[in-house]
From TrEMBL:
Family: Belongs to the bacterial CoaD family.
Entry GO CC: cytoplasm
Main subcellular location of this protein, as a coarse class: cytoplasm
Binding residue positions for substrate: 8, 40, 74, 88
Pathway listed: Cofactor biosynthesis; coenzyme A biosynthesis; CoA from (R)-pantothenate: step 4/5
Pfam families: CTP_transf_like
Lineage of producing organism: Bacteria, Thermotogati, Deinococcota, Deinococci, Deinococcales
Gene: coaD
GO biological process: coenzyme A biosynthetic process
Keywords tagged on the record: ATP-binding, Coenzyme A biosynthesis, Cytoplasm, Magnesium, Nucleotide-binding, Nucleotidyltransferase, Transferase
Stretches assigned to the Cytidyltransferase-like domain: 4-133
Protein name: Phosphopantetheine adenylyltransferase
Magnesium as UniProt keyword: yes
Function, as annotated: Reversibly transfers an adenylyl group from ATP to 4'-phosphopantetheine, yielding dephospho-CoA (dPCoA) and pyrophosphate.
MF-aspect GO terms: ATP binding; pantetheine-phosphate adenylyltransferase activity
Amino acid sequence: MNAVFPGSFDPITSGHMDVLTRAVKIFDHVTVTVMHNARKQGRHLFTLDERLEILRQATAHFGNVSVDSFGGLLVDYMARQPGGVILRGLRAVSDYEYELQIAHLNRQIGDAETVFIMAATRWSFVSSSMVREIASYGGDVSEMVPRASAGALRQKFADVYAEREAAQAGAARSAADQTPTV
């Protein structure tokens, strides 16, 4: 059986990777697919092509994962993926209520089944939007995202990271200068 793991992946996080790592052991093949919504154009930090490239890099070590994108209804995409189920990751109970509603709609309008995998507790607080916010201030997100996402975020916010690192280096020099000698 195959699974389709849809999302915006702006960028992919360690929580997404945790769900995917467990899914590849359950399903014969998993397609990670970036949802492309023309109405949300300009709301993403990364372009569609950038997100696809980050995903390809982050998932390259999996032998049974492919990366794709689609626009429109997920059930229409699923109709072109015979024998597949929708894979969704859950972080908390609050995610479940929303995802359950979407799962029921997908089954109602397109006869598409959804399988949920809970992200590990250590990733329950991590979301793409929070990662983007921390990175926009030059914060360290390397534990919250795969290497490909961390590199892309660092590149996207290069000026902020350079400024923060310069300030930290200056503070360290200042503290060293004020250390009394005996």
